[in-house]
Amino acid sequence: MSFITIFLIAVALGIDAFSVCVGIGLCGIRRRQIYIISITVGIFHVLAPLIGMLLGHLVGEFIGTMANVFGAIVLLVIGGYYIIAFVRDRIRGETGECAVDMSLLAKPLGVVILAASVSFDALAVGFGLGALGMNVFASVLIIGVVAGLMTFAGLILGKRLGNIIGNKAELIGGILLVGIAMYLLVW
Known about the structure:
The chain crosses the membrane at residues 6-27, 34-56, 62-87, 108-130, 136-157, 169-186. This protein is mainly alpha-helical. The protein has seven helices and no strands.
């Protein structure tokens, strides 16, 4: 498998992190959180294929079906929280910026749960890498770096769009995350 093939696999694995992070970034996020989340997602995209190679094909089939469900549930919770916070603030008459303040991702456990939820698909890739006799170190390093960069780009794009959209960003971010979750559950 060539470098280009590995790179394309890495981009495919990073797309979910990118799209989720655009939604998260819409509600405002501090630069420090952007770095922490991006690095954590990158690390998880290195560890997941390595773990996948160790677990084997049988376990991979089970985890593969559960990964979408787990990831969708996490996104539903975060997206639902954004939507509820937006509606609650409108009922109270508050029309400021996002009230969520990224509290779900302000704690290490929240960041780990997010990183795990967007990294489960990399487990299956690990099974394939092991079977093909790939240079595992180079492959997982490329996957991790690309996923981290795509996460960073999604958070930055979301943050900039949030600054433009203003006080509707929280609702749009919540709807986007719930939509992604529904997509994961249906497909």
